[in-house]
Amino acid sequence: MKIVLAPDKFKASLTGADFCRIVSGVLKGVKPDLEVTEIPLADGGDGTAEVLEARLGAERIEVNVSDPLFRPIQADYLFETRTKLAFIEMAKASGFALLNPSERNPMNTSSYGTGELIRDALQKGAKRIVLGIGGSATNDAGIGLAAALGYRFVDAQGVALSQVGKNLPHIHQIIRPENDLLDGVQIELACDVSNPFYGKEGAAYVYGPQKGASEQEVEYLDQGLQHLADLIKSDFGLDVQTVPGAGAAGGIGGGAVAFLGAKHRAGIELVKDLLDFDTQIKGADWIISGEGALDEQSFYGKTIKGVCDSAAALSIPVAVFCGHLDLTRQKQKEVGIAYATSINKPGQSLEEAIASTSKNLKDAVEQFAKESILEG
């Protein structure tokens, strides 16, 4: 019997690798001749770099770059030499968490540092760059990122503008790089939102307030995005407003398509592709997954959605162990989940459940193994 372990992390309590270690130990204790394949997963956001680093044997590269306010910092990315693959997390150089609360304002922040990471990867010979765009502090539509790769954004007097959100309305001309560093390079964005570039559901209105923008600044930034969209349409022949997810990461979702030729992909699908997940699960009798919560939101770009999609294509039953379970049995059946349980003990507080995650998981898997593995 072949069992594939394909969990996400349990936030604040258990990594995917920890989950695999615990579950594998229980299963082999119950049935020593089991074939257990461990494939910890992530959805393109927090924790993805760690998963890819461990599974692909990628090297972590440290680079001196600019933070969202152009101050010097060190940031890192992953580079896999054999395939020339780079995985870059925008949050490392242009992240919200890099700023103190008083510094957070997307009028003044830039994605330039992320562009510096991309430039370094290109200089090392990267041919495929995967960009995780969660956790950004910016609403510059990617002009900072593009500037680090040779683009210039100038005003009506031909003066180069600082690549920050408040300067979007002042861009008069976009000057392309003399040398195309991206020739022959595949750029992919791990993107799981569908927000348009501008408008009430766009980058500024939806994400601007979270990043520190006032009501007036949100309106100003949205107008700047509309202005840039018009320029991109006239200069590049691309209507970024029609690109699903263009509003992601303060407009990076649209800017990266225009300036870098990037393609959008769901984060979990990118991770599965990089780990050759669909090949590895062939012939499995069960796929066991897990994450902190299993509910309706789990099927909007989350790891469990990707696991269930792959399992369904091969008619493999899925078992899910989670902390919080709020999904009807009917919905579980619809998505291919044959077994789901909350590992939390009755009456446990959240703090107690988090502290007891490892033991609770072990107990829950033992019960599953007795019911489903030994009988199988």
From TrEMBL:
Source organism: Aureicoccus marinus
GO molecular function term, any single one: glycerate kinase activity
Homology family: Belongs to the glycerate kinase type-1 family.
A GO biological-process term: organic acid phosphorylation
This protein's record includes keyword Secreted: no
Top-level division of the source organism's lineage: Bacteria
PANTHER family: GLYCERATE KINASE
The protein's name: Glycerate kinase
Alphabetical list of Pfam families matching this protein: Gly_kinase (PF02595)
Keywords on record: Kinase, Transferase
